[in-house]
Amino acid sequence: MTVELPIKKLSDYSIFAKEDVDAIFELGKELKGLKVVHVNATAYGGGVAELLMTIVPLMRDAGIDATWEVLEAPMEFFNVTKKFHNTLQGADIEITDEEWALYEKVNEENAKKLNLDADVVIIHDPQPAYVPLYRNSPNTKYIWRCHIDTSTPNLKVWDRLTSKMTIYQKALFHIMDYVRAPFDKIAVEFPPSIDPLSPKNREMSHGEMMEVADRYNINTSKPLITVVARFDPWKDLFSSIDVYRKVKEKHDVQLAIVSAMAKDDPEGWLFFEDVLRYAGTDKDILFLTDLKGVSHLEVNAIQRLSTIGLHTATREGFGLVISEMMWKEHPVVARPVGGVKIQIDDGVNGYLRTEVNDLADAISELLENKTKLDEFGKKAKEKVRRTYLSTAHVRRYLEVIKSVVK
Predict the structure, then answer these.
(1) Rounded to an integer, what distance in angstroms lies between the CA atom of residue 386 and that of residue 91?
(2) 43 versus 360: which is more confidently predicted?
(3) C-alpha closest to that of 389 among 10, 84, 118
(4) DSSP label at 371?
(5) Per-residue pLDDT, 239
(6) Which of 120, 206, 348, 371 is most buried as measured by Cβ atoms within 10 A of its Cβ?
(7) What residues does the Trehalose synthase N-terminal domain cover (predicted)?
(8) What's the CATH number where 240 sits?
(9) Could you report the per-residue pLDDT of 238-271, keeping only the tens digit for each?
C-alpha cells in the first residue's frame, strides 16, 4: 500500500537549522530525480511512521522522487514480528518453523504487491526485511534501517534472521552499540529526529493548552510528571507508577501516561490492561490514549503542560519521546538505556538513573529547585535543536543514499 503524504517545505525549517537546509538542497541537486522508496510495517502508531510522515515529504522537496510503501499482512504476521522485536532486544522466546514460514510468505507476497521499482529501497526494521530477497532487481540498492536496540539480541533469532540479509549495501543503527555481524562492515550510526513543525511539536497558544487540560482533567496547579510510551513490557510502566508513588510521598503531583495503540502491536492491548490494574483507582494517574481522542496535537499540549518527563524503559531503540519533551524545554529523568543515554546529558539537561528510588529522588530534586528546573529545560531544547531535528535527519539520509548510488 502506498501512503498518501502531506506537502512539506524545507524552507520552513530554515528558522531552526539553516545550515542543514542549505546542505540538503546541495545534495538534492546531485541526486535530483532519484527514485527512493521507504518500506515499513504500518502507516500510523509508533515512531517509525511518524518519522516517515516528515522525512519522505522533505526528501521530495529536495528533488528526490521519494515514496512510502506499507506492508499488507494479517494480524498473525504482526504477532510473529512482535516476537522478533522482543527477541532482537534479548527476550528468550521460541519462534517456531511455522512462524518463520509465515514471516517469509508475507514478505514474498509483499515483494510482488508493493511498488518497489526504484534506485534505492530503504527497509525499516525486521517486518519487511526479507522483501528484497524476492525481487529480481539487480540495479536497485537496498538499505536496512534498524530502529531496535539490538545490543544483546537472542542470537538464535538474530543469526537466523540476518543470515539471509546479505543483499543490503548499508545498515543504519541509532547508535554503534547496536551493531553486530553481519552488518559491522556496512553499519552507519544514524539517530532519528523530531519534526519541529508537526502537530506534536509546533508552538501552541496558552488557550490551546488549557483546552486540552480541561478536556482531560489535568490540574494545572499541580506539577505534572509525564511518560509517553507504548504499552510494551520493555517500557516498564509499572516502574513509572512506582516512581510517581515515591515522589507523591513528598510532593502533590500528577502522573500522565500518554500512549497510542499501534496496529502492529497486538500484545499492547494485554499490557494496557495490566498497567491499568496496577495503577488502581488513583485519580492523579491519568491514562491519556488515542482511545480517548489523544492525537498528536493533544500529546504536544500534554508535554507542554508537563513539569518533568519520565522514561523508565529497560530497553529503548532511541526514544524520540525524550527529544520531544526536551524540545518543549522540560528536563527528562530516565534510565540510561539505548539511545536515551545520548539524548540526556546527565546533570546538564536531565538525569540518568536506574533504580526507582533514584529516579524519584532526581524528580524531587528538580521539583524543589525551580532555577535548576528552568536551566535544565533551556539546555534540553538547545541540545535537540542542534542534533535531533528533521533537517539533520534528511541530510544524513541523502548522504547515505549518495554513498550507495555513487
Answers:
(1) 35
(2) 360
(3) 10
(4) H
(5) 98
(6) 120
(7) 38-179
(8) 3.40.50.2000
(9) 999 999 999 999 999 999 999 977 655 667 778 8
Q: Are residues 279 and 355 in the same domain?
A: yes
Please report the pLDDT score of residue 267 as a whole number: 73
pLDDT at site 265: 64
The reply to whether 302 and 236 lie within a common domain is: yes
Is 225 found in the same domain as 324? yes
Same domain (yes/no): 160, 177: yes
* pTM (predicted TM-score): 0.84
Tell how strand 224-228 and strand 254-259 pair up: parallel
Q: What is the rounded CA–CA span in Å between residue 377 and residue 342?
A: 16
Same domain? 240 vs 144: no
Residues 6+ apart with CB under 8 A from 231: 237, 259, 261, 265, 268, 269, 271, 272, 275
Phi-psi region of 74 (alpha: psi -120 to 50; beta: other; left: phi over 0): beta
Same domain, 338 and 401: no
Query: Whose CA is closest to 302, among 256, 349, 340?
Result: 256
**Residue 268: what pLDDT?**
75
pLDDT in tens, 64-94: 999 999 999 999 999 999 999 999 988 899 9
Closest by CA position to 282, among listed 300, 257, 311, 307: 257
Q: Which residue has the cell 518527563?
A: 309
Closest CA to 197 of 54, 397, 394, 56: 54
User: Would residue 201 count as lying in a domain?
Assistant: no
Average pLDDT rounded to a whole number, residues 272-282: 93
CA–CA separation, 378 and 8 (whole Å): 27
